[in-house]
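Before relying on records like the one below, remember that each one covers exactly one chain. Contacts with other chains, cofactors or solvent are not represented anywhere in the record.
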Amino acid sequence: MGRQARATWIGDDGLAAVTLHLESGGLQVSGERRARLPRAALTQVQATDGVVSFVAQGDTYRFRLGAAASAWADALVAAPPTLAEKLGIAAGRTVAVRGELPVAELEDALAEATRVAPFEAELVVVVVRDQGELASLPVWFRECGVASPVWVVHGKGRRTTAPGDNAVRSALRDSGWRDTKVSAIADAWSATRFHPAKAS
């Protein structure tokens, strides 16, 4: 879900209260002033006296973040995690997949994993493209003996007809699964990680 913090934008025309949100693609600034800056455009990043500054697209930006300034400067210059890293898919890890993967990025993320049956997998990846597939998941989990974390790949935004995150959470929470993490996949796809309910 990225890194987020409240900050004070220090501009030539005064101060503004903003929220910084850093994702793999770049930095989004919202609040009293707004900006969307690609990560690749950020240069000359530094932290001094609680203020992070950098140059992007010919302009200089300064944000007061206090004690978090150094950590933010490091995060701004660090290489973003790969999709495989965000999903926790290391080379050789056992993975089960249900459904056709919707984007090449997800295929690449799973390329080094070892495909096994759902009951043997350390991690399960499920794609839901319609309400019927979503409704069948709890039964499929039980029938296949799924006891490991599950990434449910679902629709995001208005560019897809696949069920979104709210529908997925509602269906799986009602069946005792708990969501623990979200990861962007592509423009029209996201994924939510679920863990099975603890045995009573």
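Residues 131-144 form the longest helix (14 residues).
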